[in-house]
Every structure is written in structure tokens, then in C-alpha cells.
Design brief:
Chains A, B, C: GO terms for molecular function: glucuronate isomerase activity. Chains A, B, C: Pfam families: UxaC. Chains A, B, C: Keywords: Isomerase. 3 copies of one chain form a homotrimer. Chain A is mainly alpha-helical and 467 residues long. The first copy, chain A, has 2 domains: 351 residues, Metal-dependent hydrolases (TIM Barrel), CATH 3.20.20; 101 residues, uronate isomerase, domain 2, chain A (Orthogonal Bundle). Helices cover 50% and strands 6% of the residues of chain A. In chain A, the strands form 3 sheets. The first copy, chain A, has a 4-stranded parallel β-sheet, covered by helices on one side. At the A-B interface, helix 16, helix 17, helix 18, helix 19 and helix 20 of A face helix 4, helix 6, helix 15, strand 7 and helix 18 of B.
């Protein structure tokens, strides 16, 4: 299959023609990537990617979770075991296994992203099959050895204006410093992701607290010192380019405790003898503390709650975190966000971007909240919903109540670097498709739709994330 | 943008042509407005509306919530403060501020309603922009001075067959009496909305109870007297034209207590020393009491639960209720309605119309309940979902299980009088669009679809509300 | 209305043409019916169906629930009362009453199924109306007397390759034995539905336990004996052709108790002095026990939770179970299934098929779970959602995360034998429609879509149910 110029547009000729015109306005705009998980060392070291499997399969949990669901062992895909036990090390064998199961991805965004990557990045135009697997492997492997396929060259080729990575407060940001010092013009910023030192149930939380103290010189075992340490690290991150923070809690719970119970709670947490509800309350309180600091230092706050992390304990024991077993859960926003909103909801100098994995809240809770509170904006469809149908549902469900201008455009949220252009392209196409429908149904004039298309693709993310 | 005759129809030519034919059958039918919040004094006094801002912006929380969400102060839109503090008083300045932010409404129903109102009511055909704002303001202001723009003239121009307003049991209904006594032929009826004297957490509940006693001569501090007073007021409302009651509780909870615990609960409520769960149980019990009275006096019962009222305490303190900060919440119906349904669900002489703000219940709970229980009917998509996409989702989600004939057609639920024709027009167009799709997909014959279109636009609301 | 060859396809010419081609690939494939509720005595005895009302109306709760919702008494439709009180016995009178209310089914799947049955099975081409009711009745009644309308002839005419019925562990499966012994080639298998002896709140549970002991010779009042008895009956069902078990619990709760608390819980249940939460925990534990046995004996496990059974106590008292008053409820899967998944989720030799009545979980919970856990597959849209819009939503919501190959194709789940071809036809058309859209939007090549269409219609159900 080769990429069709009208892909993802409505097949209805009226809508398709409008979508084409709108897309022509945005197809060439630079990419703003305000939230993602690419490895900053790639840009710092600018080394060649090793091989097709290491680049495209082994680190991509979208891919290996689907294969795993159909009985393929992670060992056979080269995913490293925590115990160092044997796993497949031949990238070509991994690639062939992947090709044998390519049909599983029919109808999924992974299929679209990879088709796009194969064709536009590696010039592969034949379909991946067991028969073509070796040819395609060889072609990609060959390309990866070339200088124009190094990370910085790709960054420029992708027309990335800026990309944000995501780091823990404990990260020294050496790679970001190296990028800055290198004289390379590509703009790579960090984002402040404090979960490891803010979530008492995060693996290694206590060690993190200790380390945070050592890095900052603050007494992180006192409430005051702990907050000061976080504030200091936020300052450091901001200095290194960060414009945002990022918070991935199990729920959207927020709290606004008085000083005395806040101290007591912190002491319970630090003691290590806490109940799950203490951890939940502490995370809730910390979101409000982070909002307070954001009001001071101007970092945009991103909250994306509702994932049940590491749902599969066997897999976690054998392979570790982030192996495709994070499952979305039903999430409440109306009650959960109220303590934070009661305190900061009417601020004009604070910006809180909400993402969700619970689509039933788009129209019921999130759009009504974002269509009222000055601090709130809606992030794009997240993760599983970063897909053609998912994006379309988001616009259909959120726009009528929140409008376009309480949303912040797309982010790719990915560690799959080569897929970044494909992902932004899908988002731009779907937004143009949605706008084309509004125009074709005489709900919006085409000149206005064109302005909105550009806003969604470029201006809104740039403004919302202060990039 | 000028109104396109095919707006909101599918752009697919087959569906569009069918939709046109269906719409031609209903476009000219009189409007039935069985549920809304226009001010009866308008029809009683028949005075000119003061100015464009006072008519279209200041009272419309759809409009000012969106502007507020983007940082516009309510004071700058002329919304009165509770402390009497200064707010913008120049209607033209308010209008200009509104025009500057008109792009925020792209893709929203507010935009469609106002475009329709501007063009069909005021003859405005240019788009609202900062440049055109003054011209449009002047044109509307001029029209408002003319006799044909007085409320009664508009009522007739809108082809309203009947409109219902909504009043508290404490309301003397003087305006309704004045309308009746005036000899004017327009039919304006009231609806009985007892929330202020039935919800213990309603502002002023205790004073309301007192007033209810004074109006009725009943001892409203005894359970028996309280029920008798409500029954008496229902009788009075019915005499003044009411055909329905209207109940806006936080949840859909109903209860069916035995007499002794019911008395005890009432005494706890009257004492003022009650917990939130007592208030919830009392509201729940009162829905069942209201159903019992409806079975006796024939008033149709409307229940629309699930809004978290006044979510923003700062705003409520400064500007009062109903300022755009009511947020929908997840709502259960299957368990909540059971006590009422256990007692009255199989009655053939009782009619309970359910509205919701939780669309996830359309297909899962509401359509299955309404497709079984004789007393239940489904009201139209409510509030935020009174929109093209919202209405379409309602039909797609509810029809297959409840059919069309367990729904009751449209109501505009609005206090924005000039928008009434626009709102009914959107509803009629979307229903014709949905029916056209069924016909185009050979799921329904066109002659049947035409009959359904007329039922939805006219016959069903007239029958369901006994109008 | 006569059946249109393009019914249910998109009216857009591009999509319609692709859908036609895809449908041509699957229209003639044999039917696999892996889950349903037809009466095995029909196939065993092969007697003529008595009359149109007894065949099409009296046993179909889709039909009489809709009529009941609009005030028609069940007595007037010939539904037998538990007290043996008088009900309509004239099938023609029932049929006329049904015809008078035929408009209620506009837009519902019942309408589509019956139109299909009338035309393709009975050669009726005129619309059902009060005027045509007698003619149509006579025609159907005449056909039912003919040998080619006996159950076995219909089975063959329907091109059924295999049909599964559903029986209690207490059922001796005499009809299945008779079918097998008859020499008839039609393949009718059973499915093991243990709810009556596994759900302590099922009517007659204690008697069932007793009977289970008598049938198996096990002491079913000891935990060990009870489990052995179930295992034995599973073996017997398997021997009689069963390839699956079927579990219809109120929630998806699973548990994995240690042996000692499991025994204690069982003893509480057997004592009859248990609380609702004990019953819930027992059902939860039993799902995990059933999974364990499935891993041993290879029976595929079907779980379809989330129905609030017999919601209408008056109706249940007067007419019994299964009278259209089962109402879906909100259902959690992420937490509920975890105990079972923690223990068996990574098995490659166990297959658990999940159905739901809570569509809000398709994209949020079920597709992510099935797209990860090797044991999980997604069953088709269930019951109220076994409808054109319901099936389309399922594909739109589930495919992007779970793909097609973690779904198992269609099942008709019906006791309405004549409607089986209509139901499979709707499913095949909707799947082709969905695939045609993917092709028309250049998200999938047409040759791949054709392969998927055949997989969904035939290969996947055959494989998933081991048929």
C-alpha cells in the first residue's frame, strides 16, 4: 500500500475537497512537539540508530503489546528481561517475527504510523509481509548507517521547531546541557515530571527523596525543605528550557489541606508507614502545591490521570515497567479537581492542561470545565486515543461546549522518534477532516476553518506551552 | 456567513436530498415549547427589549461562560455583581468586547443560534467582527425599538403555539394571570418547579417552607401539612395552565419510605440539623411523593438530574447562581430510579420524562428503561447536548432500544427568547438528517420517515406534555 | 418495504461500492452460531412451529417489552401469567395487536430482523399494517405447516454449519443426545451455563446444589465435592459437544481466595445465611475456579456481566424471569478482572471471551485489556447493542486498540430461531461497511479488508470457539 494523498479525509467528495484545501494550509507547517518521551541523549550524541528492530520494535509497547496479546513471547521480540535471562538478540529474527504478525495491526494507528514511516522516511513502498520482510529490513538497516539518518538530521528533516522531552527532578539534564553547548540549532527542551518524588507509591520514592535532598541541599524530610527542593529544581528545569510540568497520577484527585494537616501527612509519608489513602491524599495535595508553584514560576501544568499502571504483575516482575500493561480506568474530574479549582481556578496567569483516558468525560466533564474555568485547557486525545477515530471523537465531543480555543493542539507523546511526522500528519488530517465537515454542513465558513486549522496545528500548541 | 438552506444536513447528496424533503414537511409547523425559562413578565407587559447586550449577552450564560474561560471578566460583560460593585454599563462596549471574541464560538451551537437570530430576526447578513460590530449593534438596537419586536409580536412571528415557563411553588403567577386576563391569544403556561421548597440544600429553603405555609394556610412544618400545601399549589398551577412539573436534583435518587421514617426524616430536615445524606434522601423521597401526586392530578413529571450546581464558589460569591459554573456529573439511573419505579413504574396514567447530562447512560440505562417501563419517556438532549452533535448522538444511541415513540420531541429549555426559532430549527434539521440516513441506508421507508419527522417536531411533544 | 441489496451500507458511492464487493465475499459463507438460546428440542423433535404469534411474538422479549413500554398489557400479547390467570389465546388477535403497534419499531433492529424474516423466509413483500396483518398472518401460518419450515429444514436452509445452545449443569442433555442419535447431520452443540448452581442468589440455588449432587454422586455440600461435581458436568457437556462455558453475572468481579477462606465462604453460602457481598464474592471466586477448569479441559470461557436482572418486581411476580426488564448497568473491568488475570492472564492455553452492556468500557477498558492479555478476546456487541449502530460503535471504539484479531466475530445470542439469518446478515453488512470505510479512507487495502471480512464472518468465531 502506498500512502494516498487523501488518506483519512472523508470519502464524500464535498468534504474531501474542502479537507484537501484546509490540509494544504497546514501540511508544511513546522512541528511543535510540546510533550514527548524521546531520549535526549540521541540529540546530544547524534549517533546512528543501531538496527531496525532496536529502532522500531523493541522500545515500542504499542507494537509488542499487540503481539503479546496474540501469544508471542516478549523474549522472542528481544525485550530485555530484568533477570538478564536470554532473549532474542538477532534483530533480523525479531523483524521477521514482527512481519509474520503484521496483519494484527490492520485498522490500528500503529499500522498507519509505520506505513508512513516506511514510505516517507525509508522509501519502502511494498507492503510488509513475511516475503518482503528481509528486503525491507535491509533497506532500513542500510539507511540507518547514513549520516542523514542520524538524530539531528532527522530532527531537521522532520521540520521540528521544538521538541520537549520529559525528565525526573533528579535528572541532571546533562544531555540538554550538551545539546545547548554543542552549538546545534535544534531546540530540545525538557519538562518537569516530578512523579518519582511526589508519588509515595512510585518505585524508589524514598531513595528519590534522599537524592532530591542531596542535589538541592535542602532537608527533603521536612515539608518546608521538600517544597523548597522541588521549587529549586523547577527553577533549574526552567533555566534549561522547560516551559511545563507533567503529572501522571492514578486519579485526578486534588486537595488543599491546611498547613498543619499537610505537615502531618508529609510526616506519615516520609515515615514509610502510610496507607494507600494517605498516598492518594499526598498526591492530591502535591497537585495543588504544583499549581501554586506554577502560578509563581509560570510553568504550564499538564495533568494526565487515570491509568492503572503495571496491571500485569507477572510481566512487571519479569520485564519491568511500561511494557504495555497500563490500562485506563474510569476517572472523575468534577469532584476531583474541585479543591485545586476552588483555590486557583479563576487565575488568569496559570494554565492547567488536562488529558484523559476516559472519553466518557470529554463532553460530560472536561469540556464544561474547560469552557468555564480560565485556568483550564484540554490536551489532545491521549495514548490509545491518539488515533484517527479517537481524535475525531474528541473534536465531536468537546468542541460544541469548549470550542476550539480551549484546546491546545496536538502532542505526539511518543518515544518512537521516527513516527513523529506520521503522528502529527494524522492529527492535522483529522482536524482538517473535522473542520471540512463543519464547512460542508454550513456550520463554519471555509476561511474561518482555515484559520482554525492553522491554530490547531501550530499557533495553539506554541501559545499554550509558551514555546 | 449567510444561512445555507442545507445547513446541518449530510453533505452526501443522497442523504441531503432526502433530508430536504423531510425538512420541508416540518419546517413550517408551529413551535411547541413545553419546557423553558423565558420571563412571563415579557408577555404580560409586552415592553420593548432594552438593547442588544441586555437581550443577547448579559443574561446568556452560554456566551459569557465561554468568554470567561478565556480570561474576560464578567464585570466587563455587564454581569451584575452581588455586592453592587461597578460593572460595565455601556451596552455598546459590551457588544464590542463580545465581537472581539466571536471566534471562540466557532463550532459551537451558540454560534449557530446567533447566526440564525442575526439573519432571520434582524436581517443581519454580514459576519460579526470587530469591524462590523457597531453596524450590527445599531441595526439590532434600531429593530428593538419597533413594535414588531415586542415580546408578543415575536411570539406570534415565531409561530409559537404554546410556551411553558417555569415557576417556584411560591410564585403567585401574577404575570400568567395578567396574560390570561389581557385577552391576548398567545398561550403561555407555567410549569411547577418545586426545587426551592423540596431541596433542603436550596438557598432559602427554610424561608420557602415558611412562605409556602403562609400562601396555602397549611402547617408546612408537619409532614402532612407540607404535602397538602404542595398538592394545593400543584392544583393552583394546573388551574393556571400548567401541565407538568420539573425537578432538577443533583442525582436521580428516589426513595419510597414507610410513613414513620418519612415523618422522622421530614422532622430532621425541618430542624435544620441534617447531614447531606438526609437532604439526599429527602429529595429522593420527594420525587416519589411528586410521582404519587402526578398520578392523581395528571401533571407530567420531568426529572433532569446530574448537574453539580455552582461549582465555582468564588464566582457564586461574587455574581450568584446560574453563571455558567454548573457542571454535569456521572449519573446512575438503574438503581436510583428503582424505588419510584417499583411503586409506580407500571402505571398507565403517569408519565415521567427523563433528561440527562450523562450521555453514557443513553444507550446503557435510559433507552432500556424507557423501552420497558410504561411510565418512562426520554426527554431531548439537555443543555450542553442541545447541539447538532449532541442531538445526533442521542438519536444514534437511544433509538435502537427505545424507538422514536418513547421520546418526546424537542424542548428549547432557554431563557434566550430570540433564539427559540433557531433552536427548534436545529432540532428539526438534525432529526430530519438522522431520518434521512435511515432512509438512505434502507432501514426505513421515506413515507414512514416523514411521519416520524412530524411526530418528533410536533405531535409527540404536544401529546407527551398534554399541550 | 422490500429488502434493498445495499441496506446498511454507507450511501456514499465510494464506500458503498467497496462494501458491496466485500459483502459479496461473505454473504454466502455458512453461519457459525457459537452462542445462543434456541431450544434443542426443536432440532430433536423436528415438529412444526405452531403459529405466527407463538413463533415470532410471544417468546420475543425485544418485541413485547416495546409494546409494554407503550401501555400494551402482556396478557393481551399471550404472555403466560405465573398464576395461570387468563391471557389472550387467539394467535390472530395477538398478531393484529402487534401489527397495530408496528410503527413503534421504526429505527430498531427488531424491525430489520422481522422485515428480513418476512421477506426471505415467508415471501412477504408488503409492509405490516393493520390492513395487511391478516394476509401476512395467513401466509406465515400456511408456510409453518409445510415440511420445509420444520426446524431441521430451516437449519439447513439457513446454511448453519453449527449452532450452540445453552444449558444448565443440571440438564441431562437428552435433546442433544437425541439429535446425535437421530443420524441427522446438523451440528447442534451445548454450552455449559453454570449460573443456577454458581450464583447463590439464583432462584432455586439450594435445590440446584442438591440436584447437582444427585446427578454426579459428589457431596456438593463440601467445597471439594462441589468443585468435583462441576468438573464432572463440564466433562459430560464436553463429551456432548460443548466447546465453551457461559457466565452471566451481575458484575465482572473475580476473586482468587486462598483455600481456607474459600472453604469458609462456601460453607457460608451453603448455610443459606449469607449477605449480598458473600454472594458477590462467591460468584467472583467461581469465575476464577471456572477459568482454572477451562485451562484443564479446554472449554472456552464466556463472561457477560453487567445486567440488572428482573428490575421490575411486579412484572417478575406476575410473569416470571426474562420478560424484558433486565437493564444494563455501569460495569468495571480493570479492577474486577484483576484477580483472575493475575493468576491466569498470561496463559496461552486459556481463552476468555468478554461481552459487555457498558459501551463506555469498549475503548477505555476492554480493548486495552484484550490488546494486552493473551487470554482475553472481545465478544461481539451484546443484546441491545446487537444492532447496526451498536456494531458500528463497537468497531469504531475497539479496533484501534485491540485490532480485529482480538475479537471473535458475531454470535446471534437469540432464541428467535427464524431471525438467525437476518442477524448474521446485519453483522456481516456492518463489518463490511466498517471495512469499506477504512478502505475508502486509505487506511487499509481492499485485499486485506476482504481477508478481514471473511475472518470476522467465519474463521474467527470458528477458531475462537474451537468449532
Amino acid at each position: 500500500m502506498s500512502l494516498h494523498p487523501d488518506r483519512l479525509f472523508s470519502p464524500d467528495p464535498t468534504q474531501r475537497d474542502i479537507a484537501r484545501r484546509l490540509y494544504a494550509e497546514v501540511a508544511g507547517l513546522p512541528l511543535i512537539s510540546p510533550h514527548g518521551h524521546t531520549d535526549p541523549s540521541w540529540y546530544a550524541k547524534d549517533e546512528a540508530f543501531p538496527d531496525p528492530a532496536a529502532l522500531l520494535i523493541i522500545p515500542d509497547h504499542y507494537i509488542f503489546r499487540m503481539l503479546y496479546s496474540q501469544g508471542v513471547r516478549l523474549e522472542d521480540l528481544g525485550v530485555p528481561r530484568r533477570d538478564g535471562g536470554p532473549v532474542e538478540t538477532d534483530p533480523r529474527a525479531i523483524w521477521r517475527r514482527f512481519a509474520e504478525h503484521w496483519h494484527l495491526f490492520r485498522g490500528t494507528p500503529t499500522r498507519m504510523w509505520l506505513d508512513h514511516t516506511f514510505e516517507t522516511l525509508f522509501g519502502v513502498e511494498e507492503r510488509l509481509t513475511p516475503a518482503s520482510a528481509d528486503r525491507i529490513y535491509d533497506r532500513i538497516a542500510d539507511r540507518l548507517t547514513r549520516p542523514e539518518f542520524r538524530p539531528r538530521a532527522l530532527f531537521e528533516r522532520f521540520h521540528l521547531e521544538v521538541i520537549a522531552t520529559t525528565e525526573s527532578p533528579l535528572d541532571p539534564l546533562d544531555h540538554h546541557r550538551a545539546i545547548r553547548d554543542s552549538g546545534w540549532q535544534g531546540r530540545v527542551v525538557t519538562a518537569f515530571r516530578p512523579d518519582p518524588v511526589v508519588d509515595p507509591e512510585f518505585d524508589g520514592f524514598r531513595d528519590g527523596l534522599q537524592a532530591l535532598g542531596e542535589i538541592t541541599g535542602e532537608d527533603t524530610h521536612s515539608w518546608r525543605g521538600y517544597l523548597a527542593a522541588l521549587q529549586q529544581r523547577r527553577g533549574f528545569f526552567k533555566q534549561m528550557g522547560a516551559t511545563s510540568t507533567d503529572h501522571g497520577h492514578p486519579t485526578a484527585a486534588t486537595a488543599d489541606l491546611d498547613p498543619v494537616p499537610a505537615v502531618t501527612l508529609f510526616e506519615t509519608i516520609v515515615s514509610g508507614r502510610f496507607e494507600p489513602q494517605d498516598a492518594e491524599l499526598f498526591r492530591a495535595q502535591m497537585l495543588t502545591e504544583m499549581a501554586r508553584m506554577s502560578l509563581e514560576d509560570g510553568l504550564v501544568m499538564q495533568i494526565h490521570p487515570g491509568s492503572f499502571r503495571n496491571h500485569n504483575p507477572t510481566l512487571q516482575r519479569e520485564f519491568g515497567r511500561d511494557k504495555g500493561a497500563d490500562i485506563p480506568t474510569r476517572t472523575d474530574y468534577v469532584r476531583a479537581l474541585k479543591p485545586l479549582l476552588d483555590r486557583f481556578g479563576n487565575e488568569r496567569d496559570l494554565s492547567v492542561i488536562l488529558f484523559t483516558l476516559d472519553e466518557s468525560t470529554y463532553a460530560r466533564e472536561l469540556a464544561p470545565l474547560a469552557g468555564h474555568y480560565p485556568v483550564l485547557r484540554l490536551g489532545p486525545p491521549w495514548w490509545f486515543f491518539d488515533s484517527p477515530e479517537g481524535m475525531l471523537r474528541f473534536r465531536e465531543l468537546a468542541t460544541e461546549t469548549a470550542g476550539f480555543y480551549n484546546t491546545v493542539g496536538f502532542n505526539d507523546d511518543t518515544r518512537a522518534f521516527p513516527s513523529i511526522p506520521a503522528r502529527h500528519d494524522v492529527a492535522r488530517r483529522i482536524d482538517c477532516r473535522y473542520l471540512a465537515q463543519l464547512v460542508a454542513e454550513h456550520r463554519l465558513d471555509e476561511d474561518e476553518a482555515a484559520e482554525v486549522a492553522i491554530d490547531l496545528a501550530y499557533r495553539l500548541p506554541k501559545a499554550a506551552y509558551k514555546l
